[in-house]
């Protein structure tokens, strides 16, 4: 006899028990009673034909079966969130939530101004901004629209190439006043250089273009691009920055411009199923326009146009 198929609520309960480590903590998070949470887990274990948690005095420990099933429960939760965001569009053509994924620098330094104008045009939109340098999975509905620095590979994604951002080396005028400007790549060895803490794919690509970096000992290491930018602005030393972003700050001066230039292709991406959802399309189009202006460096005319539209 086949077991009764568990309710979708049971998968949500499983996920919260996995995260919280106990039935009681999961019950408080979900607003359920502890016996109800226990029955959900019992039903899932009966359907799976294997125990999902080992009970002890200190709480619940997930079994190998639970850890194997966890990614599927995460996908169900992400799909449920996307379902609610899509269903919210029934309240109006430009109402509801749209979740945007972007890197630290773009999300904090560039995108808020674009979203501010969008919010003025469509006040019923609820915008969620996920700030991470990790590539979130749009196929699993971790975000609705994403700004990426790598070309998407999945066929189910709609993408628009926005152009290429240039990354260069910059230093604050205070640092330059104290330490001078390096005239050659070799001179960097005598300066405080800001770099990554780990040998990321981006750093490997930069090192192939600028071999001198392999000979440098970074004075400050951090994997946060935003922390690196803050250190440059504080006058700590020489570090990488988007050229367009540095152009906004008169206190920053480019270093070794003829030697260090790294291209950063930029793409706007969303799931093809969201193209017909008005609020998602509105966010996609607004980001496409605003980021294209930023990348092209049309700062003066673009700013006047944005102000006129407000």
UniProtKB/TrEMBL annotation:
<dbReference type="Pfam" id="PF03466">
    <property type="entry name" value="LysR_substrate"/>
</dbReference>
<dbReference type="InterPro" id="IPR000847">
    <property type="entry name" value="LysR_HTH_N"/>
</dbReference>
<keyword id="KW-0805">Transcription regulation</keyword>
<dbReference type="InterPro" id="IPR036390">
    <property type="entry name" value="WH_DNA-bd_sf"/>
</dbReference>
<dbReference type="InterPro" id="IPR005119">
    <property type="entry name" value="LysR_subst-bd"/>
</dbReference>
<keyword id="KW-0238">DNA-binding</keyword>
<feature type="domain" description="HTH lysR-type">
    <location>
        <begin position="6"/>
        <end position="63"/>
    </location>
</feature>
<protein>
    <submittedName>
        <fullName>LysR family transcriptional regulator</fullName>
    </submittedName>
</protein>
<comment type="similarity">
    <text>Belongs to the LysR transcriptional regulatory family.</text>
</comment>
<dbReference type="Pfam" id="PF00126">
    <property type="entry name" value="HTH_1"/>
</dbReference>
<dbReference type="InterPro" id="IPR036388">
    <property type="entry name" value="WH-like_DNA-bd_sf"/>
</dbReference>
<keyword id="KW-0804">Transcription</keyword>
<dbReference type="InterPro" id="IPR058163">
    <property type="entry name" value="LysR-type_TF_proteobact-type"/>
</dbReference>
